[in-house]
Amino acid sequence: MVYNSLDEVPNEVKEKLGKYFTTVGGDTFVIHGLPPELTGGALARYSRAKSGIQLTLLNEFFDEHGEPSQEKGAALMDRVLNAFGDDSVGELEGTHVGLENVSQLFTKEIEDRRIGGSPIEQSTRYVLYDQKDAQGRWRYFRPKEIVTSEFSEKYEQVNNHAFKVYTHCVEKLKNYFAQELPREKFPIQVEREGKMLSAFEKDLSSEEERKAFRIAYNFTIRCAALDVGRCVLPSSTLTQLGVFGNGRFYTHLLSSLKGSELSEAQERGVLLENELNKVIPTYIKRNKADPRQRKINKDMKDIAEKLFAGIIPTAEKVTLLPRLNHLDETLASCLFPYTSVSLSQIFSVVQQLPEEKKTEILVAYRGDRQSRRDRTGRGVEAGYPLLFDLVGGFAEYRDLERHRMLTQQRQLLTTNLGFIMPPEISAVGLEKEVEDVVAEMEDLHGALRDVGLKEVAQYATLFNHRLRFMMGMNLREFQHLTELRSQPAGHFSYRSMVMDMAKAVQQRDPWTQYFLGFVDYTDPGNKISRAKEQAKIAGKNLAAGVESGIDLELQGNGES
Question: Are 395 and 493 in contact (CB under 8 A)?
């Protein structure tokens, strides 16, 4: 039966609708609980149906038994998305996925997708990586390319050593930071006569307050220790990732994973496709490995290798680039991921190139486009008013990469730009142990590169090995990035970097100061700057009666 209005719908049918809409008959409601692919199919009809979605669902997507039909929704999506090529409707359906026991390196494959997906990953700032798996092995990824090579045994030895030193470092650093911030000097916020006041341990008046103090203090000390100790964690360290994404996001992600030069990404792409096919098969039907992109990568690597042969990379922490003409900026941006030299050095080379060479590079980067869907890479996003060449640890890059309303590209993880040795490692007497791991990892990395495994050699790096990446943005995004990432609760490394970025911009363009009023320049090297933040959180949790010990209790360290 076809209904012309909801007034004609019997009450028993409206009750069925009520399972899927928070309000039946209203103009504003939440849609929930429909079978996979049906919500997107029904929403896709909004642009072509006279009636609202509730009536459309009844007339077009319910079966003869008065139940929503997943098949009807999938059929419409297949027609609109795959037959007509209307990509936008691929964003109308989404799902959550979990990706566990993947390397830190692999997470960048996911998080590098900017639009349509929201990832969250296990934090090395909060989770202690001191546990072995059921087979008694440290938790790091063992790539097929290395396991089946002559370097398998050496890879195991170097990574095992790194994890042992990491565990030793964290224990020593806990004691170090406990001395730097003794219990008697750590206050929390408590409520007294309707006011929130700072109180030290000796001033606390109840078991709840004393427990809140222990949690906040132990959390502060442990996080400070993990912040520094992770310097020696390998990029192969296993982690877990949760993602919510829409159909278009997963289509592009699967295509990227299948076309990756890393077997880990290729294999995970197949596994992820198998699971997504159980929930949103129509939405990901068009994903495919792209041989065109592989050829582009090869051609660009060959060009970059010849152009920059013999140039020793510079390694300044923060460089704000001058503006060039649009063509030269685009050429430099296109070449950046395929070399190890700085943007300044790339600028110097491309400015001297003859026009025919510049055209050759543009054509190689474009590749063989067969249709409008063969989109060109991020290099052609060049032309931002603010462009940075940045050299910092892999650890801080992982945080800054989260910013998506800009253009960012990275070069391959390498040991060639050196290792950042935290002064606290020396203070606890472990500098020699860490240096030994660094030397072993650098030797392994070089050996892998020497036999042509440049992509795979990225697994043979540590969190504090320097990485070069570029970020281009407008002033509004720069305001957001610097004011957020300079806050005291953030990691000290990226806080220091964004402070330098803000200073460089204001030095070049003094008028920008009017828009950067909340950049926090306090204590850039303070490893326990989160102490004040935890003091406030403890007070808020006390006032609200919220139990906040679970973050520590689940670690099994007996610290809460």
Answer: yes
- 107 near 459, Cβ under 8 Å? no
Residue 528 tokens read as 């326990």
Domain range summary for the chain, segments of one domain joined by +: 6-92, 95-233+530-553
Interatomic CA distance for residues 88 and 86, integer angstroms: 6
In this prediction the pTM is: 0.90
Summarised one tens digit per residue, pLDDT across range 275-322 is: 999 999 988 998 999 899 999 999 999 999 999 999 999 999 999 999
Name the β-bridge partners of 120. 242
Percent of the residues in the chain that have a pLDDT greater than 90, as a whole number? 68
CA-to-CA distance for 330 and 272, rounded, in angstroms? 34
Q: CA nearest 460: which of 450, 469, 468?
A: 450
R_g of the chain computed on alpha carbons: 27
Residue 555 clears pLDDT 60, i.e. is over it: no
Tell me whether residue 372 is exposed, middle or buried, using C-beta atoms within 10 angstroms of its C-beta: 0 to 12, 13 to 18, 19 or more. exposed
Instruction: State how far the Cα of 478 lies from the Cα of 459, in Å rounded to an integer.
Output: 31
The pLDDT of residue 548 is: 64
Cβ-proximal residues to 257 (8 Å cutoff; 6+ apart), any chain: 109, 265, 266, 268, 269, 272
